[in-house]
Amino acid sequence: MFPMIKTIIKHPWLTGALLAIFALSGTVAHAQYAHNPFFDHTVELWHTYAIEIMNVRLAALAAFDDVPEELLEEAEDLVEEDLPRFKGSLAASDAPLAHALEEALEEVIEVAETDDSDALKEAIARARELTWRADAALVPGEMAARPEFVAAVVAKLVLNDDGVAEAYEDAVEEELWEYPNGWAALQRVRELWQQLRPLASTEQAFEIEDALQRLAELFPSPVPPDLEGADPEAGEDPGRQLVSTLEVVANAYLYPERELGRVADVVTSAVRKAQAAYEAGQVDLAWERVMLADFYYHENLRRLFELIVPDVHGRISEALESLLEGFEEAEADTEEFDGLLAELEQGRTLLGL
């Protein structure tokens, strides 16, 4: 008997909690689809999503002639959060392009601090052109054009961290200036939906466009409204309506949390590859892989680990945070990889993953 099942028997209240987690993620029952992009194209999808989020931030900046100081602080994530997600791979593929993109992003941040809106728009245009070149260098065009790949990008832009629903939640709860990023992400989702629209039936198109309209009501403009008393989860229901319908349209699984064992494989593999890259002196590539592991863990595994094995979850979270801080400060410790892998293995054993 799996240790997780023993725990549930010992603590029956966990049954309801687990069912709530699985129902939220669509784990209890789902159809059979032909494609599984989150596992078939994990790294490529990670790179494309990072570049999409980078462009979301750039689009949010471009929506303001006079950029608010609070949004400027968010824009710093272009270099601090977004670029490290793919910088190592891009440098290995096209080092001059990686260097040019980093310089262009730094220029955007510098110009945004001035009052020259024309210069800012020019800097943003240069940066965006380089981001699309980076995407093309990292992801084969044929793969990027597949409906299941586009649908997975949409799903991430709608539901994942930095996407539409999460940006609204953050804006309501504590980070108001995430709101313009949510607005910009929604505009991009609308663009990508047009690529998939010919595949949808009339009923499917109605469901998706209804969900888009409900999301648009939350984001009428890039300027944050008064959100006092607003429901932070208001974007979740239309977001899941959109993604669940899009699964049928694209014939693809778009909720990776349905397969927690495979998610755990992704996280473990990413940490091992990060360790190998770090030991080989490929620091940026190692950083990129740890960021991937951290993202997949916190988006998909965190709730279950935190609920059933909270001590292990705490140690995993601390290890991931420590590694990421180490990369940022150029002081990563190779021994931390071994400790993180041991904790992941322990958690998987206890949960039967």
Q: Which secondary structure elements does this structure contain, and how are they paired or packed?
A:
Layout: H1 3-10, H2 13-25, H3 37-40, H4 42-62, H5 69-75, H6 77-82, H7 87-93, H8 95-112, H9 117-138, H10 141-144, H11 147-159, H12 164-173, H13 179-196, H14 202-218, H15 236-250, H16 260-279, H17 283-308, H18 310-328, H19 334-351
Helix pairs in contact: 2-17, 4-5, 4-9, 4-11, 4-13, 7-8, 8-9, 11-13, 11-15, 12-13, 14-15, 16-17, 16-19, 17-18, 18-19
Task: Please provide a written account of the structure.
- With 353 residues, the chain is mostly helical.
- The protein is 75% helix and 0% strand.
- It contains 19 helices and no strands.
- Helix 11 (147-159) packs antiparallel against helix 15 (236-250), helix 16 (260-279) packs antiparallel against helix 19 (334-351) and helix 18 runs antiparallel to helix 19.
- The chain is globular.
